[in-house]
Every structure is written in structure tokens, then in C-alpha cells.
Amino acid sequence: MIGIVVVSHSPRLAQAAVDLALEMVGDGGPAIAIAAGAGEGVTGTDAVRVAEAIGEVSSPEGVLVLMDLGSAVMSAEMALEFVDDPEVPVRLAAAPFVEGLIAAVVSAAGGASLDDVEREARGALAAKTAHLGDDEQPEPSPEVGALGTAAGTAVSPAAEHTIEMTLLNPNGLHARPVAMLVKALAAFEATVTVAKVDSGRAPVPANSLTALLGVGAGQGDTISVAASGRQAAEALDAVRELVRDGFGELETAPQLATAPEQSATPADAGTPQAGQAHARPPIEVAASGPLGVSPGIAVGPIVRMPEPLEEPAEVPQISEDERPQAVVRIEAASVSVASALNDKAGRVSGPAREILEATALMAKDPGLIGDACARVTQQGQTPARAVWAAAGDIAAAFKEQGGLLAARIPDLHDVRNRVVAELLGRQAPGLPDRTEPYVLVARDLAPADTALIDPAVCRAIVTVEGGPTSHTAILARALGVPAVVAARHALDIDEGTVVIVDGTTGVIIDDPSDEQVAQAALKSNQVVAFDGTGRTKDGHRVQLLANVASPDSVAAAIEAKAEGVGLFRTEFCFLDSEEAPTVDEQVAAYRLVFAAFPGKKVIIRTLDAGADKPLAFVTADDEVNPALGIRGYRTAWRRPELLTTQLQAIATAAAAETADVGVMAPMIATVEESIQFAALCSEHGLRTAGVMIETPAAAMSAGDILQEVHFASLGTNDLAQYTMAADRLMGDLALLNDPWQPAVLRMISEAAQAGIATGKPVGVCGEAAADPLLAAILVGLGVTSLSMSPRALGGVSELLRSVTLEQCQEAAVAVVAAASSGRARALAAELLAPEALTPTQVA
Ligand code: PEP
Ligand code: MG
Fold this sequence. Notes:
Layout: E1 3-8, H1 11-25, E2 32-36, H2 47-56, E3 63-67, H3 71-82, E4 89-92, H4 97-109, H5 114-122, H6 126-132, H7 142-147, E5 161-166, H8 175-185, E6 191-196, E7 204-205, H9 209-213, E8 222-228, H10 232-244, H11 266-269, E9 284-285, E10 291-294, E11 297-304, H12 323-346, H13 350-363, H14 366-379, H15 383-401, H16 403-406, H17 409-424, E12 438-442, H18 447-451, E13 458-463, H19 471-479, E14 483-485, E15 498-502, E16 508-510, H20 514-524, E17 543-548, H21 554-559, E18 564-569, H22 583-596, E19 601-605, H23 635-638, H24 640-656, E20 660-665, H25 671-683, E21 689-693, H26 696-700, H27 702-708, E22 711-714, H28 716-724, H29 742-758, E23 762-764, H30 772-781, E24 785-788, H31 793-801, H32 805-816, H33 821-832, H34 839-842
Parallel strand pairs: 1-2, 1-3, 3-4, 4-9, 11-12, 12-13, 13-14, 17-18, 17-24, 18-19, 19-20, 20-21, 21-22, 22-23, 23-24
Antiparallel strand pairs: 5-8, 6-7, 6-8, 10-14, 11-15, 15-16
Phosphoenolpyruvate binds at residues 567, 569, 608, 694, 715-718, 765-766.
């Protein structure tokens, strides 16, 4: 039997809900553990206790976790990070707390599987919704309204036996009788349905508590019960007996009130006591249900990501007679793949074209194709096996050579997969090659695939796997593509079906009506607008600036009414350059950006080459650990002329335009570096010099650093990476690489306080500034400007306008003291945007 964990802010609420649920099943219910309260007498939730509770009721059949609201959801999600055992599936149920718990307990008591129990719990509001009428119905859950059928919709077995009976008990099929019915019928090998006679409604399955509640049969109503299967007759006998006995309610009042003496159940035995330590069994992290992880609404036809290819088997061998034909097939496949790649190359330009043309050449490479054909002719390998094996040998040789050749291995594998797919008559692996808008549906996406997504055609992403901090979610947010993860039924939707994807709520609607499409199209165009002045509700000014990567990205910043540029990443202008750009080339690029913001602030950053942003002409390729190597300002140690040339170019460009130009250096770690940089800027006539604070060293020395420069800007992407010792490129470390981590928030607070103490501006230009809630916390901590991707300006501005500076400050104090990133987020949401408190948004 599955185990159940109940997570609540209030121990009393949790205990009462559990007692009520156990009333429904009496003896023999599932093991239930409560994780409620945040310590003796303190309301709240605690992830460690949730993990302990999961351990208490751990069962190979699985564990279902039900939560009340807000931080309960956060704590439960965090608890999944603490436990890790592939043998025990654990699910967080997006279910109503009380109704969901009752439904879960009843179906678990009947021996239902984790899937079924979860479905029951999630659908547990159906009866109440139906009873209170259409006007009051909540938005359908994705499972009901979109991808699947609601728990308890009509299922009509080929009935062998049917009975009709009139209900005698005072309240008819209410919760307790229904629970008795479900439990009793679980003992029989029979499919049973129930319908209210003359109601005009279809029969519902009798193994579903929520479906039975929806029958709406009261005292005096007649129900029709149909059964099929080996024990159909016995099942009907059991129903007959229960109905005849009035479900034990004929002489007594309904027994729904808590009965204290019944609390000594197996479930109580599994309830962890406050402070009790348990060995934590490892538990598998399982997705809960469709989760919106990247906001926005999109409409489009579904295109499926092809399933990855499996290595073709070494056997069977092909006969001598078949070999010539097999060789011809390999050659034809290689030509066809090469020509498809060349076609694609013809549709793009620049480096993308060159890469595709090179890949096309590899597809026809005589070494690869010749070796594959030889394997067919000499060893009788199948064509697919031969290509796979030939590519494997070449990859091994590339690997041994290392350096640039080793870097080509992914391209070689890409070519191998395409040729093998062609030979097997399968769709080419990797992102679908489309020019028309579509919604991408995949089991999961590799970071490399997600990063290649073109937001102009891929309008939304839906994956079966993944969670809110998965790489798909992170990259989708970065691309601005709406995304829903953990949509377990997504692969059931036919290719080409038009869907509406809501990346905020997680709802997916397949085959929408014209009206729904029109509404969605309207909403998808509703970008929150920014009016060009950032301020809080009480008028405290916070400059809202744009991050730009090159002159090409300036238009979006202007269109979004950015107040200026808070981070101009100059290295992006020269990503493809083999040689260092000349002063003139640089002046031309910088002037384009300065000219776009006459009289306004533009903070230009000197080259931040290395690690995640390598530049051919400067980055050393022999570093073992590039993120901790010669990158950012440190490149000037080896190549001082690169920095001085750049400062010269910036000074020339600034003199030619009217923008209020500030210059800052990336990856500063010491006060000495700040002194040097300020002196160099001054030598070049650049009046406003600043530094980025993106190492813990700089954050802790911010007071001293700010004595030497005019301003500082917090690079929270790197600050999180270095504070948490978590590579920012690794999706697996997303949970650590999170600016909401209390340690990172404390680093930010240290730097912001230094800004207040020295009277110097301290802004934020990392991704943290683009998260509206976190932006308000940053303002509360004392930062003076926020710089972000232009599309984030509206949302940040909107939230800031809804809160006062004092609210931001109070929330900042609470959030910085939080014990976990989940708790920090939840606190911020509770204090600054309580109306937006839904699990998906808070997650
Ligand atoms: C940062 O680290 O937060 C930052 C803004 O710099 P980049 O992302 O370019 O490293
Ligand atoms: Mg950085």
C-alpha cells in the first residue's frame, strides 16, 4: 500500500484532516505521516521534517505528499532534494488539501496504485464543483481540461450484472458511504459502475471516490449499479448489503466528526514527532503534474522531438547477397543527409551556415562512409550498425587527439545519428527543422537542444519530464519561450494538433475552440508595458535599465523604454573574431550603442572573456578550470594591451556621443584591482569607473572597493556560481545556482550595505534583477538600479509599483534571514505578492 505524507503549516489542521480521512476507512488505512509546523508551537513548514515524514511511510509502492499552501509546497519540493532512492517513487499531489487527502486515503486503502491515488486526490474537488454549479467552477486542471480525462468520467464496462437500489441513509452517497463503497469493492475482481437513475448522466467508475461523490444521489434516490468481471456477482452482493444497511447510518448520525479514540491507528504510529531524528531513506524525485515554468501563452501545432536513437545491435549479420545493396543504401543515406544539411545551410548565414556546411561535408566523408561500407562488405554488418561503429572508431581517434578535434565529436555524433535515422526510416534526431511556428513536445530536452531553440518558430515547449529548476526551465526562461514541464500526457497528443500552452499556469488545451485561440492570441500579445520610469508605490526611484549584448540588441531595449543600459557585454560583439578587434572596429560598435541612448546612462563592461564566454583571440584553452582561471579583468594580466586598447576605444566613442558613459571591469576580486582599473580609466579620460561584484571576495570587500571607484554592479549570475561553488552552466546544479540562496542574498546585502555606507550607487545586472519578486528584495536591500533583459522590464516595474520601499525593506530583512532558497522565495511572495501565491508561480 502506498504511504501518505501530510504537509501543513498547522499541526492541528493536519491532525484534524488526517483524523477525518481515517474516519472514512477505519482500520486498514494507509500509513500516514504528518510534517506540520516549523518547530515547537511555530506555524510554518520545514523541508527536513517533510523528508523525515517521507522516510516514515516509505513503501516500494510509493509515497504521495499532500500539502496545504504556499511554503508547504516549497518545503515539499525541497524535501525531494534531500531524499534519493530510485526504488521508492514520491509524488507531490497538486490536490485540494482536505478533499484530496480523503480521496487519497480511501483509494490507497483500497490498494490503488500511486498513479491512481494521485489522480483521485487531484480530482477531489469535482464533486463540490459540480454541486455548486458551473458559475463557481474553477479553471479546469490541465488533466481534466486538456490532456486527459478527469478522474471519474464515464467508463462503461460491458456489464454482466446490474442492480437498482434506493438509497436509505439520510445523506445518500456522501463522503463516508462512498468511501465504504470504494473500499468494499476493492476486494473484488470486478469492474463496477454507478449511475443515478433518471439523472441523464453517464455511469461513473465505482473505484473512484471523487467520481462517486459526483453522482449526487441523496436519500430516496435510486442508483443503478453495473458490474462485470470474474467476481461481478459478489461485488454486487457487497453493494447490496451496504445500501440495505444504509451504510451503517440508519440509526446513528453521520460519523464525520473527529473521534479521538480512533486516532490510535497505524497512521499515527508513522507520524514523526517534532525533533525526532530518522535515518533518511533515499527516495526518487518524481514530477507532480504539469507545471508552468516559463511564463507566457502560445498557440501552435505540436511537433514532437524525435526519441533518441539507440545503438543498433551487432547482430544479425547480413548475407553475402544482400551486401552490395546495403552498401548502396549507406551511400544514398549519406548523400541525402548531406543534401538536407546543405539545404538548411542555404537558409541561414554567418557562422551557422559555415557549421552546417562543414557538417554536410562530414556526412559524405569518405573515411566515415568508406569504413561503414567496408564493414558491410567484409563483416556483413547491417548498414545502421556499420555506420554507428565506423563513427565510433573516428570519435575514439578524435578523443585521443584532444583539443579542436575532440571538440568535433558532438558534430560527428550528430552526423552518425542522421545517417542511421535515414537508414532506419526514422525522423532525424535533434530539434525539428521547421520554418513555421510550432509547439515543441518532448520527453525531455538536453541543454544543447534547448539552447538551439529559435523562439521565432518554437512558440512553446512542453516536456513530460523536468521540474521548475531543470535546465529546460532555466533556458526556456532565458529564451522567453513559454514552457510547461512534467506534462505526463503530452506525448499522447497527436503530432500536428493545435494546442494552447500557458507557461504561467501549466494548462495545456488541445484542440481549442476558435474563441479560445482568439483569447490566447490576445493574451500572448499582452506584454506588461514599462512607461520608462522605475519607482516603488511610494515614489522611491529605482532606475530600470537594459542589458545589451551588441548593437543588434539595442532596438529591443529602446522599444521596451529602458532608462538606459546597465550592462553592455562587449565580448558579445567579438564572439566570432579570430583576431583582437582594432580600435576603429571597437569605436564603431560602441558608438552604435551610445548613440541609441543620448543623454542617458550606458554602463559598458570591458571584455569578460573566458569560461562560459570564450573569445578565440584571448581565452587560454589549456585551463583545467576556466571558471576559476584567467577570465574577466584577469585577462589584462597577460594581455594588458587588450584592456588599454579597449579603454581608448570606449573613450573615443564616448567623446563622440552624448550618452552618460560609465565603464566597469568584470570579475574583480581585490581592492588593488579596483584601484588599478580606476587609475587606467582616469588615464584614458573616462570619468566614471566602476567594478562588477561577482566574486564573494569582492562582495566581502565592497566597502573598501567602493572607496576606490564610482559605482559597483552586482553580477548575481557569477556571484551565485562562486558563492555556491556550482557551475552555472550545469542544469543539475540549478538548485544551488540560485540567487535566492540565503548565502547569495547575504553577499548581495553586504555589497548593498557598503553602497549605502559610502553613498555610492550599487546596481544589479545579473538575472536576479529580472525576477520581479527578487527585484523588490534587492531594492529593499538598498540597490539603486536594476538592469535586465528588455522583456523583463514591464514585469519588474509592475511589481515595484505595487509595493512601498518600506515593504521591500521589511521583506528583505525577513528573506535574508531565511534558512533556504525555497523559504526565501515563499516569504517574499507572502510579504510582497500574496495574491500571486500559487505553487507554480512561487516555484
Ligand atoms: C553576472 O555574472 O551576473 C553578469 C551579469 O555577468 P555575465 O552573466 O555576463 O557573466
Ligand atoms: Mg558575470
